[in-house]
Write a structure and sequence with these properties.
Length: about 400
Amino acid sequence: MSSKALIASAVFNSTTQGRKGIADKLFAHWFSRLVHAQIWEDPQADLHALQLRPGANIVTISSGGCNALAYLSAEPAAVHAVDLNAAHLAMLNIKQTAIKHLPDYDAVLAYLGDANHADNLKRYKRHIRQHLSEDASSFWESRTITGKPRYHYFTNQAYQHGLLGRFISFAHGFVRLMGGDMSKMLEARSVQEQRDIFDHYIAPVFDTGLFKLLAQQPLALYSIGVPLSQFAALKKDADEGLHVLFKERMRHLSCDFPLDQNCFAQQAFGRRYDIRRQAALPMYLQQAHFFSLRRNIDRLHAHHLTMTDFLRTQPRASMNAYVFLDAQDWMDQSQLTSLWEEVNRTAAPGARVVFRTAGQSSPLEPALPSTLLSTWHTDTEHNRALHAIDRSAIYGGMHLYQKT
């Protein structure tokens, strides 16, 4: 099935009607291209929540692939990366191939970390091209509107491509137009300086009339993968207005973690990774994890189908960890029920499920039959603590459910 058809099957549900029906169709079309060149959920927070033991079987939504790769550092038996979007799986495949086949860590860092070297063309042609999957090869060899093959992304700031990369570039331009400057954040040398710069150069933009108007437009968030259903959850939490909610989430990203230890802030404010500082890199690009990732790289398996359909192929009580990112926010009651029927069937004793939500609340208890959650435990206070350490800082909640 094509990416467009798979995405439509996920987005279109019992709520797809009227104005939302038009919005869902537009979102499905928009989301069928490369959205996330890098993922925006923190694998360090995931691993803290999941407490994985060596030999675990993990299933995750792929998105840009960074987290699926990071989980290899936990010595799993298998990481299954599932996605509706073939472009995301192509991004995962080129990262996986680079880690496996480039000569050494420095070459991997230049290719995937800096992602802005002319020499990366040679690296692609000598070490990567012949090892890509057929679908990934079709994606990377195809030409963009500029006439260049997509593999040129890695010679020209790869993470500024895709819908999210372009959205971040737009955000920088918009903030400058409003009299601010997001790049000033990178001048901070302490958390206190981060707070001062945020208050002076970024926070006032959220209170402008133009931003308040844009914040009310669901279409403005399509480029970061937020469908209308998630927009509704955001509005539910926005007691003081969406502009205030967005400002406080940006404050969390800007001020609550040292910038030199936050790869998400590096992308948001610098539109690239800081390869001079190991702690500022995503986990899968840190040298401390390189040899475990390379050793375990063939334990990562990509699947182009829905999460529910993937789980239907798995044996009973075979999975130890599930990472659903924010996908459940898209689902109606029927879709959630089908998914959790398969989670219950495939979950091993002690299995854990981690996911994010646009709003603060979990969608599960209001939507699922109580019998489906009767063997699962979640702790609201612990979930708040997990959300507090998630450096990506864009979600309203992070939730952990553990099978009892």
